[in-house]
Fold:
Amino acid sequence: MSFNLPNPSLLGVLLVISTHSGPQLAYKYPPSLNESSNIPKFKDVNNWHYSSEEEDDDDDELYGQQSSSDDSDQEFTKRDLYEYSSGTNSAWDTHHIDYYLGTKLDLLSFLDEQNQRRSYLNKVKRAATANKSSTKKTTAKTEVSNTDNTIYGIDPAYLCEMLAPPKKMCNTRFELTIENKVFLGLPIHKYDDGHWRKPSEKNKSYHDHDGDIDNELAEDPKPDDSPSKPRLSLNMFHLVFIMNPPMIESNYRIDEMFHYVISRLSLVLRYEQSKHDYICDQVKSILTIKDQYTDEEELQTKLLEKSSLCKLIHDCYNSITTSKIANLLINGKLRSFQIPIKTEFHSLPDSTVPYIPGSYLSSTTNLLNNTGLINIGETSRYGHTFNAFREDDEEEDVIMYFALLLLDEPESMIRDIKTDKQSNMANFIRMVDSRQSLFKLSARLKLDIMQIKSFAYHLIYWRRARIIQPLSTRSVFIVSPMAPISLKLIDDIVLFKEKFPTLPSLPHFLKLLSPQSRKPQQFASIIPSKDHRESYLQALAWLIRFGYVTQLQTFIWLKISRNIKIKVEEDLENENLNKKKKKSLTTSTDNTFKPTDNTSKRDQGKHSLVTSPPEQPLKTTLPTVTLTEEDDTIILDPGRASNLERKWINKIIFEECKLSSELTTVFYKLLKYMNGKSSLELLLLKENISILELRKLLFEIEDYIISVRHW
Amino acid sequence: MDVSDGFIPIVAVFYAVFHPTEGTKIIHQVPENSIVTTSHQRTKVVKNVSRLSMDSTNSDSRQRQEDEDEDDGLFNFDTVKNYVIPKPQLCNRLISFKINKYKVIGYPVNMENPRYSRNSFSFNFCFVFPYDKGDISPYEPAIKRMGQMFQVLEEQNFMLSKLDKDNSFFKKGSTGLSSNGASSDISNNINIGIDLESYTNATSMSPAASNDATVNAPGHSKTKRISLSSIESLVHQIYQDLNNYSECCIPLDSSNSVDIKLFPILPAPINLKAYQVPIATVKLNSLVDVNWDPTMVKILPFINGLNSVKRISELANANYLLTKQCIQHLMHYKCIEIIDIFQFSNIYAPTNHIGDFLKINGKMAEECQAYVVTSESNIEGSSYFSHTPSTYHNNNTSSFHGSNSVSPYSTAGLKYDSVSSSYPKPSSSYLSKSPKTVGNSPNISVNVKVPTKTTLFYLYRSLNQGQTVKEWYIQHRKLLTSIDIRRFINFGVLRGIIYRVHSYPLVNSLTRSIESGDLAQYDEFLGSYKEKKSKKKVKVKHTDESLLKTKVNEQTIKTDNKRKVSFSYSQSNLHDARKSGFSSREVILENDSEDEDEEEEEGEGHLVHPRSRTISRNSFASSTGLKYASGGEENAIEDSSDDDNEVSEEKEQEKAQLLDLVKMLKGYQSFDSICTELQKSRFEVEKMIEKLGSYNSVSS
Structure:
């Protein structure tokens, strides 16, 4: 399934109200809602990535306008025909799922098309910069001209009846499906006492939405009863989202939309209604405007101009359909809504699982897994397969050891989030350094840890930053297996050049990070001189930001060699045979990795695999198969080692390696991390251990360590 | 999303109609009283009585259900009335809605006929599901079809409307729906009428029903007797059967029945790439039947975990796009998984799942031991060999390892591991089960040492982003005895503990022209460059080709037996065979890239497909030759005496290839992709790229 790709499947938004005279459709956007108008879905296409990618935005937008407007353009019609005939038009729409599913054609024809597409876009771009405004106008015109009053073939009057449900179905999630169109919303009905929100325990009456919104709104439960204007007897309002999700993902997409957008937006509207009678006022003005203007086109523009509710519905639709963040002005207050996109992966998706190009791959993602801040990508075709382990209880604070990587330029970010330029937030954003942990940052800024954390969470949730390990030249980096080389490199080469004109080109940089005939090296090894250090690190941050590069981390296990085991065995035998037997039987908590059944093995002093077939009979047959004696044991969770395992470990540190007392303390500090799950890099950050000590220790116990490097 | 084939059970089924006097009401529901209606309290007593007439098994389960929902029911019917039978304009479509914690799906049908008392009749079979328990889309098409079927039956025979005992759906006295019909109805169905009827034999049909049929639809009565005696029994059976068996088959009469089978809906397959390699997870051969698509049957023998999609299409002499489709279908039904082309020049590295190899009670490790073990002799003999097309059919168990390892080694080996504790001599089964091994191994007394799990783990972890398999092999050769490397790698890739590191050639001159923002110039520059270059290179190139032609036949015979693990790239066998057919294309493409006239180029790109299909036959012949890359050079000189025609053809063809190459470089394709497309070894491709200037190789 393609859950990794954003697919809002939003077709339109309706505002249905119910007054004493019955249900009524107050506003709909887009103005025409019928099957035909939605097939070439190029309207208001924008890139859903980040605002930083203005370049891309432009391309798509201009192309979109061109395609929906310039019907007279010979070239376009010809192209259009071709595309429809071969059925590949959707394959080029970055918002269409087909774009990510690979080409149906064979590679060469695909590349031909791609190439042609690119130069076409360039041409359009050049041509369109001149007459941008004119194209925009024509777009609007074509949009309105094919307005048809029905909504997907259904008379709005009948539909409204259905969308204005009886009171018992209100104030809870509403879902109506007619054939393949889902009408989803949270109808808000006035309570019997005339209030819009339950005067007392209103929080408890809602199960379907996030608690935090209600809490946020709960501050002022009393409706503002001051308005002097004549009231419209509004009983119910219902913001209905029309969706057509693909059948297989239907539930998922609907839940997503409801949870992240509909419930939150509807509750904000309810709050505004109860406090300021916002919906009533707006509906009244919409109705007056509708009376004033009969011309459809004029009406639409006037509605958008004069009614903030229409404007916000319009904005909401446009942002959500393109999977962007919807920054809506609701009764003068800015609120943001988004369906989070999945750009973080803890493990590599199957080759058959599509994902957003430029996604990030790192197991540190697991740290945020439970915070709800990010949506972690699916890695297999058939749903969830991997349950991330919970690191520790202290995981909340672990984030402080990490650094933030901004996904945009600080100043433009400050502008975007409309925060005061001198506010703490703005200062924080300016100070963020991908080389420094949040702890260091809080010390520098003299800000409370909690505040730093909340800033960080905010930026992460709103797609403006991500968590990485503080960048260091000692870390090892590789070109990410998810690097968008085929898809985006051609554009990113230019971006990289603009950003770092003095550095080697992007391909060269990537080459430096792909070692030939040797293991991946520390980043320091590719920096030519000390003067380059700064700029190389910046380039590295850029590469991580665009998903080209990921960090390799080291994970270690303790490996108990056969010698140790035999020695321990002998010791034990010397002690007391009977006692030993009892003990080992009771302590067989199976967290070691062993060739055979643990208990039997422990009982068998000899380590020959008694439970497996003896070698003798094998020799009678042709090629003899022997299970080589398992000589090493890898301890999976030394933090919860069994008695025997502890004896092994003690044997190693005290007798085999004869660690000094300092190193022994370091060893015990690290012991619980030798489980292949916590990276050395992370524990260096967490536990107060110097690299020198760690190196010394690892060198000493080298023979008893097995390490793996991955992201 | 649920992975299992288990379907969300139906909570309730009800049949509702729009009653001319009482409005929308539920006629029957299963389990009873699960949906609260206003008339609920009144009818309850009657229904309890009627339930006594049920056979005991059903009433038991019902009793239970009812006890649970007795008080509130699932929801109040009055609230949703207008959604169950909506306005006629909204009828005759699949409609679902949410109420409380349930989702109700139905296909409301509205029919107009002057005979009906309000000139129309509306009904709906509704299914109730829990709202957030999961995906109920498998039911949707079935429910829609059922609604449509009853619509037709009602149209023909008034099958549903006439079942009403008061005959209230028809106009009094209209069209001869006589009062005696109604009265006899009543007389038959006092109190427990319908319930009783449902459990009587279908042959002892209620006289009222037969009467109605004759009266209402004179034309049909003789030939078609609708014997639907009770909606209740129908609804009940649907509910029971679908929940218990996920299917139902309920005859209504001699020619109509309600047949429903639920199928899980799987995600659409994504489009595969030419260089990806399908590997079977089930015994595909055993699935074939006569109805299979011919292309599918054709390509099946070549799906062996070695051949790429592109190569399969060539070997099977099938159109590439069709082959791709077929393989995508197989993927859709989880019959195959996708791996990469195994070559010793590949790079693999551990993923974050590598720790799993140690976990799960060592199960993965055991399976790995069983799967990868081989004797030295096997390396030459069966292990590499048993999966080539020629032996594929002989070896019944050879559909090989996916997640349920079924290869000869793994099945036998697994047995060896798991059974071992209880039986002293299970090892003999190991050999008896893999006759190939026995037969092929020349040296009988080889001692195969199964590598330890720690060793295997050590080997997996020692793979890294900077080393090719070849380099890695040389470094760890000692540990790799009796390990089949290809299987070792495949196992790791399929289990997700290692991943393939792809390398991409990034040509510097291309980068420069992109940076300067002028790709078009690059095309032109290349165009002229190629002209010159290709002239120079014709000689060399040509010799390769002619050699290929002359030697193909004898090599085909030889290679099957002598196939070995070699460090030359396994793709080298894919020598180019796009011959004569391309000359015309080439000319046009050349012009296009210079003119920048995209429309035409596009069109041409499409025309080419059918042609390449015919060519694939040539490549079939050549593709079996395995060792040309190495052996070709020396012999080349001897064969270089072809006529002029040939020379120019070769030249054109090479130009075409260079153009393709440039296209792919511009598209930033990986080496695998380029090699597959050009049907050349990586070595050759590297040489070709070098002609275009220096390049960076990036591993990702």
Summary: Chain B has four domains: 12-261, 277-339, 347-501, 504-699. Chain B touches chain A through 137 residues (CB under 8 Å). Residues 347-501 of chain B form one domain. The CA atoms of residues 124 and 286 of chain B lie 44 Å apart.
